[in-house]
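Input record (one chain):
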Amino acid sequence: ILNPTHPATALLTHPTLLIQRHLEPLTLLAGFEQANNYTILSPTGAPLGHLSERAHGLRSALARQAFRTHRGFTAHVFDTAGSEVLRVQRPFAWINSRLRVLDPQMRLIGEVQQEWAPLRRRYNLFTLQPQEGTHTMAQFARIDAPFLSWDFRLQSDSGAPLASVNRNFSGFAREIFTETGVYALRMDAAAMEEATATEGQHILPAAGPGLTLDQRAVALATAVSIDFDYFSRHSGAGGGFM
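The corresponding structure, as predicted from the sequence alone:
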């Protein structure tokens, strides 16, 4: 769906994106469920764009308080010029979440689906594969992380790493008093190997030539889904107050 001339290309071709969540004081003090807002940064902290949930006044605010992390929402990804480059839609779900990725013309790119499992954190990632007369979803990656994990590796069906989402903190005091979560999305082999070497771990060689633009868009949406499912103050998944 996405090609090298698409407006989202400049954002998605970065090997590493930092995704920073912002919470308002009312959320911190009273547990008020606010609309989702994230800043997308380069590893050096330079702004690359932002993601903002569309709010619809009082009715939308009441729905956020009633349904918390079960609620559906639509959010828009903007570049630094303020132009919309991607859109994500999350339908209401009691158990397994699902986040769809679209371009501004509402063309479906792919989706990430949560898979419930005892003591595991699992996701399946898909991109749309247009075929003659029909469209099908093809799975390109899977996440199978331990319970309470902060490290989410996107792996191929053979187990080779494709990308990773890691929840990194800017500092203990800052995290406690503002709860601004930072997620590092690494989408190429060099960035992943550098991070893994720092952590003293070993991973298999990366699979294939790297992620396509469509797959990168789904990986970006996966970072948002992980935050909402497991690290929201109201997620109930053991990470909301960390």
